[in-house]
Amino acid sequence: MDHSRWPGVVEAYRDRLPVDADTPVVTLAEGGTPLVEAPMISSLVAREVYLKVEGANPTGSFKDRGMTLAVSKALQDGATAVACASTGNTSASAAAYAARAGMSCIVILPAGNIAAGKLAQASMHGARMVPIDGSFDDALGLVLELTAVHDAVLVNSINPYRIAGQQTAAWEVIDVLGGAPAVHVLPVGNAGNITAYWQGYTAEAAAPQMWGFQAAGAAPIVDGEIVESPETVASAIRIGNPASWEGATTARDESGGLIEAVSDEEILDAYRMLADEEGVFCEPASAAGVAGLLKLRDGLPPGPVVCTLTGHGLKDPETATASATLREPLAPRLDAILEHLEL
After folding, report:
1. Cβ atoms 330, 72 nearer than 8 A
2. N or C: which end of the chain has fewer CB within 10 A?
3. Which distant-in-sequence residues (6+ apart) come within 8 Å of 127 by Cβ?
């Protein structure tokens, strides 16, 4: 496929998606994201490792793949508004695609738990944002109530069009590698993405092991029970009751994979290593999968590994800048610079 004229995932995979000739495709040319070799991680785990860099999507996260389809179908059905609960990435994506479609966007979000980059995006795209004193799970419950009584379409990942659109990432991996990897590794929060990848792989009769990783402070699937007050530095996966819980466990069980937990320290170590060693800057939640891969490397089967990095690092600038310090300014002279750099 000629990626210089990438049409977006709906047109690229129209024959495999639930659209028809009358569907008004709302697109920002999402998808077609790079599969980047990761030599440092490959050397550490003794496998070929590739990074599916979903931060290269238009709003900087994988959410755009499903949002293009969800908003297109909502527009086809005559809706004038969409609504979502969000820890950040969904709100940014929903707001952007709603703006593109000429629709309004309502976002209910847990106050104080949204990274600045994501909040800025949703605001700039004109979303009507309603912060609540509660968790993401509380916000999702309210959106379900709202969309039951108001003419707005819910575009969280429980919308089946979101999952249908997100599965295109698995097809892209197959297109590039010429087949499925041995293992596909992802962070797990609301669990829609691991559900979507598995749906995409099985649609192509491919069956990599699906390895999902939750943050230890927000690991309901690992613990086997709802987490009432999830806590983790990885805000995008700070979810205590995943909407796609069943889909995630199905992906795990049918693929012979696993869903385990990693600590915030392990997440941040992987986050820094990806930026410093691989040159790829992702948000902390994206690094949860890589953290898990490094932690459980001894259990890898033979064959290539793909790690999905779900969002760009600029989504959560606070985490990066918290450890970034500058010394007092130097005199504007080359000798001062050379002395400081010990050159």
Report:
1. no
2. C
3. 91, 94, 95, 98, 105, 106, 107
CA angle 133, 139, 140 (to 5 degrees): 165
Judged against a pLDDT cut of 60, whether residue 3 lies above it is answered with no
Give the span between the Cα atoms of 244 and 195, in whole angstroms: 7
Provide the CA 292 distance to its chain's centre, in angstroms: 16
- The reported pLDDT for the residue numbered 211 is 98
Q: Break the chain down into helix, strand, coil percent, rounded to 5.
A: 50, 15, 35
What mean pLDDT do residues 313-319 have?
A: 88
Token pair for 334: 């080359």
| pTM higher than the cut 0.90 | yes
- Nearest by Cα to 119 from 136, 140, 95, 101: 95
13-52 b/e (C-beta count within 10 Å ≥ 16 → b): beeebebeeebebbbbbbbbbbbbebeebbeebebbbbbb
Q: Output the CA–CA distances (angstroms, integers) from residue 220 to 44, 228, 242, 247, 327, in the order listed.
A: 29, 9, 8, 14, 42
| Interval 32-84: pLDDT, tens | 999 999 999 999 999 999 999 999 999 999 999 999 999 999 999 999 999 99
Distance CA 90, CA 82 (A): 12
The set of residues, in sequence order, having a beta carbon less than 8 Å from that of 209 and lying 6+ positions away, is 182, 183, 184, 255, 256, 257, 258, 301
pLDDT at residue 1 is higher than 60:
no
**Amino acid at site 185:** V
